[in-house]
Every structure is written in C-alpha cells, then in structure tokens.
Amino acid sequence: MNQHTFHNLSTITNRINALLQPAIGKTFWVKAEISSGRERGGTFYCDLVETNKNGKIIAKMSCTIWNRELYSIRAKFSENKLDLKLDNGTSVGFLCSVQYNLQYGLSLKVTDADPAFALGVRISPLSGQETGSFKVHSVPALNDFIVSTYLSKKRSSESLYK
After folding, report:
1. Closest CA to 118 of 98, 102, 104, 139
2. What does the pLDDT read at residue 1?
3. Within a domain: 9
4. Domain containing 87: what range?
5. What's the pLDDT at 5?
6. What is the mean pLDDT of residues 140-151?
7. How far apart are CA 122 and CA 2, in angstroms?
8. What is the mean pLDDT of the chain?
9. How far is the C-alpha of 96 from the C-alpha of 161, rounded, in Å?
10. In contact, 105 and 62? CB cutoff 8 Å
11. For the chain, how many structural domains are there in total?
C-alpha cells in the first residue's frame, strides 16, 4: 500500500506566494480579449482570454480594474474622444501587474490601457511601425485624426510598450 504525504492547502498557497513574490508589482503590457466582464461598485472584474485561430481559449486569467484606475483610464480615453469598451469579446491592451492572494488566487491588476490599441493601432516594438490588427471601435474619419495625434505625442515622449 502506498503512503501519501498530504499538505495543508495553506502550505501550498504560501509556497506559491513565495515563488511569485519577485514578479509581484512589476508591470507589463498584455493584449487579450475581455470575457465574463462585469462592473460592481465602480470596479471592473473580468477574465482576460487569448484564443487560437479556431477560437479555442488557450490562456485565461482573472483580471481587476480597481475604481481609481478605471476612472483614470476612462478619463484618458475621453481625452482622446473615445469610449472605453469593456464588452465581452473586446480586444484590449492593458498595463498589468501580477497579484496573488492566499484566499483568492492568481490574477492581474490593470493600471492603464492604451487608447491606440482600442483604435486598432499599435506600434511594433522592433520596427516602430504601425500595425493595424484589431477592430476599430470609433468613427473612421475621427480615427485618422486621433491616431495621428496620439501616435505623434507617443513617439515624441515614450514608447507604447514599457
């Protein structure tokens, strides 16, 4: 008969927490689609998903945009004459950090969003060239103006990717 060693769940979650500590608080840009999104008490909760060419989910993670960040992101989009679309299936470009809670598990915390991503434009970090690979969520004539204005500001001050 086999002897099994059983570990308390808290021992496992504490070990996971220790392993993740070097990554906690570091930020990175994530591109994904919103799934199961809902806003409650001024905070937005969702899953971020990535799908393959056949539409099968190949990656999924819980995500939170806390009230203060959501307000700031909405203001940033409004300044660029855009609505922040947080509908299921919407492609997003978020600045995130890893969060781990012993009770609630692993998730991403959003601290910023890229309005150019919402317009269907992003800058290749290698070439600095525009690539349009995402659905546009605004009026096309307005897009040209906003994209050129936004990109010229971005190019003069900083890269879209941190």
Report:
1. 139
2. 74
3. no
4. 25-98+109-157
5. 92
6. 42
7. 56
8. 78
9. 12
10. yes
11. 1
In angstroms, rounded to a whole number, what is the distance separating the alpha carbons of residues 71 and 77? 10
Instruction: State the number of CA atoms in the 13 A half-sphere of 11 facing the CB.
Output: 4
pLDDT: is 143 or 64 the higher one?
64
Q: Model confidence at 147, in pLDDT bands (50, 70, 90)?
A: very low
Whole-angstrom distance, CA of residue 112 vs CA of residue 94: 6
The letter for the amino acid at 147 is V
pLDDT band at 120 (very low <50, low <70, confident <90, very high): low
Sign of the Cα pseudo-torsion (143, 144, 149, 153, in order):
positive
Distances (CA, A) of 10 to 15, 44, 50, 56, 102: 8, 28, 30, 33, 7
Token pair 């997003």: residue: 92
**What are the structure tokens assigned to 8, written together?**
């308390």
Task: Give dist(CA 149, CA 145) in Å, integer.
Answer: 6
Residue 54: give its domain's CATH number: 2.40.50
- CA 13 to chain CA centroid, Å, is 25
